[in-house]
Amino acid sequence: MAARKPLIAGNWKMFGRQSSLSEIKALWGAIAPAAEAVEALICPPAVYVGQAVWQARGTQISIGAQDCSAVGDDSARTGEISAAMLADAGAKYVIVGHSERRSQHGEPDALVRRKAEAALAAGLIPIICVGETQVERADGRASAVVGAQVRSSVPDGNAAIVVAYEPVWAIGGASTPTVAEIAEIHGLVRATLVAKFGEGASGVRILYGGSVSPKNAAEVFSAEGVDGALVGRASLKAADFAAIILGHPAAK
Ligand code: PEP
To answer: Quick one: which H or E segment has residue 65?
Structure first.
């Protein structure tokens, strides 16, 4: 099995200002000794991606974006940002299919897949988000929903991707799934990727996301099949995000 370097990604969502970018240097000051063992990624709002890349110069912190256009070619798309532009600005990753994009912007699996394809074509690594709602879990449909999302949202033929399992009900909330529940869905995601990519699936990192904090990070990382985390609120402050990163067993 290919070795997978843990990835801990921070999604700043629509928070922060230029002044927030100083958190990147502060983060590096705290996590530098762990950088060979764990990859840290910050995804600021798109308008700050270029500046974040400058802030991260001389560090091993990666910078990514939170979304991209599904259209690869330069064209008349007012307000859209292409994956090629993000790559040109120095981004390495882009999140696609976050549940807030799916629910607030009505993005279906087919569009998420096209965004992931556009990212791959531009040389970015898409972080493809999947996850069930509270109702779907209560109905016993979590595995079926997540399996279908992975099959439909993940492009065929190129395993240079990351998948983030983010139960919608755990995002921005107070509750997280149990370690056993996280492990069960991560196993299902891995099996679905193996069905799609064969051996190539072994290099794909599967992250857990949903209310990860310095308090519960060690427990989350103890779940079988978890290759890192996608973190919202707790990534905004360097001290909290560093505590999560340093809480990964590989960082010890
Ligand atoms: C997210 O938005 O991807 C997320 C996991 O948010 P939070 O950590 O705030 O739940």
So the answer is: strand 62-65
